[in-house]
Design a protein that fits this description.
Elements lengths: L2 H17 L9 E6 L2 E4 L15 E4 L4 E2 L8 H10 L5 E5 L2 H8 L21 E2 L7 H11 L4 E4 L3 E6 L2 H22 L9 H14 L1 H4 L3
Parallel strand pairs: 6-7
Antiparallel strand pairs: 1-2, 1-5, 2-3, 3-4, 5-8, 7-8
């Protein structure tokens, strides 16, 4: 894929976050891996106003190329790509239900088998750190260890994937799970699935593969 086409896809993904109501306004950010680094949405620019030239190219060590400043969260994008070679795209959103849980310091336990879509028996919530800091990146990497998504305390969520399409689909799925869990909590504490059952589910998901997981 040409870099121009990838820049356009990043903008389309950012717009889709708002269209699918997992994000609002200028919050959140999107990136995709390229040779030698990654492309990321710029800071403080409305998605609808973005043009391909506005997407910021960054080196693998975090140097920005171009006149616009990158998203303030560029550090965790850089660090995820550094330690997770299978990740090709990252979506960060401030979705309502996932963020509500994150503001309580709650991750998403195995209350539903689809929690395994994020790669493990639960979806962790990273401890709080100020946005845009290296500390936040370090905590996010810890929460993402062995996972494809996590919540960020008092902040939002991160979803990663082998493509922009897969990362966005996972972010939408995580928000749906967060909503179901939040609603169940209004009645009582949901009964979690057993560790043994989650092992079975995770094995089934590995058979289907990431591309098909996003379709369920």
């Amino acid at each position: 894929m040409s870099e121009l086409k990838l820049r356009r896809q990043i903008i389309a993904t950012a717009l889709a976050m708002n269209e699918q109501r997992i994000n609002r306004g200028k919050s959140g950010n999107v990136s995709a891996r390229i040779d030698g680094g990654f492309l990321v949405t710029p800071s403080a620019l409305a998605y609808a106003a973005m043009r391909p030239a506005d997407i910021v190219a960054m080196s693998a060590t975090g140097e920005a190329i171009g006149s616009r400043p990158p998203s303030s969260e560029w550090r965790f994008h850089r660090d995820i790509y550094d330690v997770r070679p299978e990740v090709q795209a990252i979506v960060h959103a401030h979705s309502s239900f996932a963020t509500s849980l994150a503001c309580l310091g709650r991750g998403i336990p195995p209350f539903h088998y689809m929690v395994a879509v994020a790669g493990g028996p639960d979806i962790r919530c990273a401890q709080y750190a100020t946005f845009g800091t290296q500390k936040l990146s370090d905590l996010a990497l810890k929460a993402l260890d062995g996972r494809r998504a996590c919540l960020l305390a008092n902040h939002g969520m991160i979803a990663v994937g082998s493509s922009l399409e897969n990362a966005l689909a996972l972010a939408v799925e995580v928000e749906a799970l967060a909503e179901m869990y939040w609603r169940a909590l209004q009645i009582g504490e949901p009964k979690p699935l057993s560790s043994a059952e989650m092992i079975v589910v995770l094995d089934k998901f590995r058979t289907y593969g990431e591309a098909r997981q996003a379709d369920r």
